[in-house]
Amino acid sequence: MKRFFKWVENRSEEKEIRTTFGTLAGKVGLLSNLLLFVMKLMIGLFSGSVSIIADAMNNLSDSASSVLTLIGFRIAAKPADKKHPYGHQRSEYITGMIISFIILFVGGQFLITSIKRILQPESLQTSSVMFVILILSIGIKVAQGYFYQETARHIKSKTLLASAKDSFNDVYTTLTVFVSAGIEHFTGWQIDGYTGVIIAIFILFSGAQMISGFINVLLGDRPNEEELKLITDHLDNQQLIIGYHDLLIHNYGPEKKFATVHIEIDDRWNLNRSHKVLTGIEKEFKNKLKINLVCHLDPIAVRSKEQQKVYKLVKELLNSYELNLQLHDFRLENKDDLPLIQFDVVVPENISLTNEQLLIGIEKDINQKIGSYAIELVFDRTYLLKK
Asked: Example GO molecular function term (predicted)?
């Protein structure tokens, strides 16, 4: 498979590789699903099996999904324009959503047909040809699912991963049909309708899961732990910065990722040095991780003994609550009337206290235990970073 992928890449321009693989997967799926539909429909009509006909219609819906995959990758390949400055790659997710709804519709139709067969059972006309075709279709679906899966991993496509999952689900449904037909052939038990119900429920559940996954992506889901670790490792390896926080990642498609992060540096640096360091980090992310990163500058008064003292006291105060509260962006400004403390508090996901409740308690304790200060707090409840 790797050699095949390499061969395809060598015959494509770099900017078109993703579209080439997506189009190839769509064509393979379209041809193989149409072949399976024709074979299963023939034996389904011959045998009178509602579960086999349902399985055939499932393959027909997979053919429609393959057409949508072809269209989706073509649209996703369009460059950014005036109305869509971030490109069109999210159209892959929309395509996947449509495929999921088709799967739900087909599953619903199977369920109705299968219930009717339970109420009005009919004997099947089984044959050796029918069993051979069912076994052959299982093999084709396994190969199809594996091809989708490896292609999806190669180009990091959620749409093709969904197609791969659907293909492997089809293996289970056809295997169930095969077992059901075998039982009726040898025992005479009329379980075709019950098998159809099982298949329909399985398809409905799979479609609902796929819809949920695409909704999460379109709404803006959390990066997977592997991707997040890769990003934080690169930030942790920056030797010149003091720290970082408020990392946000925006996904506009598989190859369109944007991120923002606050970088803490020594406040004694001049503007040119600060710009050079942050630009270097942004270029590293662009070249190595393919992420468009924007760094926000946070100067830290590391040499101010007064600020470090108050910072330490405030940190100890927050730790005393045993709520795992973290702070960053700490500032101390000495004013004529009352010194001003500014900082952000990172609130863990499991804390039920509101921002107002936390604010009242922290302000009261700082003024009673540390000193009289004007206090400005910002509560951070984004849970991308755990530290």
From this structure: monoatomic cation transmembrane transporter activity
